[in-house]
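User: quick one, sequence for these tokens?
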């Protein structure tokens, strides 16, 4: 008798600042929840934030918690498929985008590969990650981490 792989709690940061960004973020949350071996555990409110180290219009951001049997690199591949389906292009680093999906955490996984670093290396520097993450998983974000990004412009929608 084979047993199904155990599910891990993964957190995905979602952002968009081109086209109908609000709809793109909502559609991405739905697409992530529909992945094989995956169910949505929680989704944050939508947040509006200024671009960080980038130009262009404000971003619409959110974080979703997933319980998934997909391994980190499998989940990343599915996320990149969703981005491509939303018209994501990567002309240069931090370019404006129709959709950006970042795997922030995947259970207790610690990875440092060319394709994926876990936990996400810049998540604790970004209010647009920490504020929505703290909303759905307050145990993942400390008060000092939130204080460190308090100067970044962000508002819950």
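Assistant:
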């Amino acid at each position: 008798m084979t047993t199904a792989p155990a599910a891990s709690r993964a957190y995905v940061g979602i952002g968009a600042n081109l086209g109908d960004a609000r709809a793109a973020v909502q559609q991405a949350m739905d697409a992530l929840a529909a992945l094989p071996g995956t169910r949505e555990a929680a989704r944050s409110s939508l947040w509006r934030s200024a671009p960080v180290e980038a130009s262009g219009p404000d971003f619409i951001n959110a974080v979703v918690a997933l319980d998934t049997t997909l391994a980190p690199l499998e989940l990343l591949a599915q996320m990149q498929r969703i981005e491509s389906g939303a018209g994501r292009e990567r002309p240069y680093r931090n370019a404006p985008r129709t959709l950006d999906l970042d795997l922030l955490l995947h259970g207790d996984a610690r990875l440092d590969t060319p394709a994926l670093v876990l936990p996400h290396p810049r998540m604790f520097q970004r209010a647009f990650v920490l504020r929505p993450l703290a909303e759905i998983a307050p145990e993942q974000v400390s008060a000092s981490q939130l204080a460190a990004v308090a100067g970044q412009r962000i508002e819950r929608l």
